[in-house]
Specification:
CATH architecture: 3-Layer(aba) Sandwich
Structural class: alpha/beta
Strand order of the largest sheet: 3-2-1-4-5-6-7
CATH topology: Rossmann fold
Number of domains: 1
Protein name: NAD(P)-dependent dehydrogenase (Short-subunit alcohol dehydrogenase family)
CATH class: Alpha Beta
CATH superfamily: NAD(P)-binding Rossmann-like Domain
Largest sheet: 7 strands, parallel
Number of strands: 7
Pfam families: adh_short_C2
Organism: Streptomyces iranensis
Radius of gyration: 16 Å
Order of helices and strands: EHEEHEHEHEHHE
Distance between the termini: 25 Å
Number of helices: 6
Helix content: 40-55%
Family: Belongs to the short-chain dehydrogenases/reductases (SDR) family.
Shape: globular
GO molecular function, one term: oxidoreductase activity
């Protein structure tokens, strides 16, 4: 398959790049400052340009989406807007604009995260963004068939516990290899409208 991988330079993105290539897929990487294609997907016009440069695709995989983590009283209107633009609207545009560029039975796999189902201190903006993406996935699946759409919602990565574990006390973790397998399930499988929780 020809797969467009968004956020390939990140912790998860690097693992996905390796995993998908090892499974025989052709991966075209996208990032703001690195990758085969360099675009900022918080800008819809750059999303348009990215698809024009990418060519025909079988799958679009997103491993990107930034949200601010702050105590609720400190979250400003700009923070809420940033969370929504960085994780929700950017991924919605990825799907909306991608529909004519992805094969008839191709797929989209988006990224959410554990704050959408297990709130943590300082994670209100992340909870909002993740919940919105998951609701969008379920709604979009009804409309875009036979194209498919799913989301992967991982816990904190085991490999990232030294940096982020304190924000998720007692919640465990998930290995990057397991998260990558959920993406494989979404890309190569037949399910749609699913949220793969890890």
């Amino acid at each position: 398959m020809n797969i467009l991988l968004i956020g390939a330079a990140g912790t998860l993105g690097r693992t996905l790049d390796t995993t998908l290539r090892e499974r025989g897929h052709r991966v075209l990487t996208v990032g703001r400052t690195s990758g085969d294609l360099r675009y900022d997907l918080t800008d819809p016009e750059q999303t348009t340009a990215m698809y024009e440069a990418a060519g025909p695709l079988d799958a679009v995989v997103s491993a990107a989406g930034e949200v601010p983590y702050k105590p609720l009283p400190e979250l400003t209107p700009a923070d809420w807007s940033s969370a929504f633009t960085g994780k929700v609207l950017s991924q919605i545009e990825l799907v909306r604009q991608g529909l004519p560029h992805v094969a008839e039975r191709g797929s989209f796999t988006l990224i959410t995260g554990i704050p959408g189902r297990e709130p943590v201190r300082t994670g209100a903006a992340a909870a909002l963004a993740n919940g919105a993406v998951e609701a969008f996935v379920r709604a979009a699946a009804v409309e875009i068939a036979p194209q498919r759409i799913n989301a992967v919602s991982p816990n904190v990565f085991t490999e990232s516990l030294p940096d982020f574990g304190e924000y998720f006390p007692g919640m465990g973790s998930v290995d990057l290899t397991d998260v990558a397998q959920a993406y494989v399930r979404s890309v190569e499988g037949a399910q749609t409208g699913r949220i793969y929780e890890l």
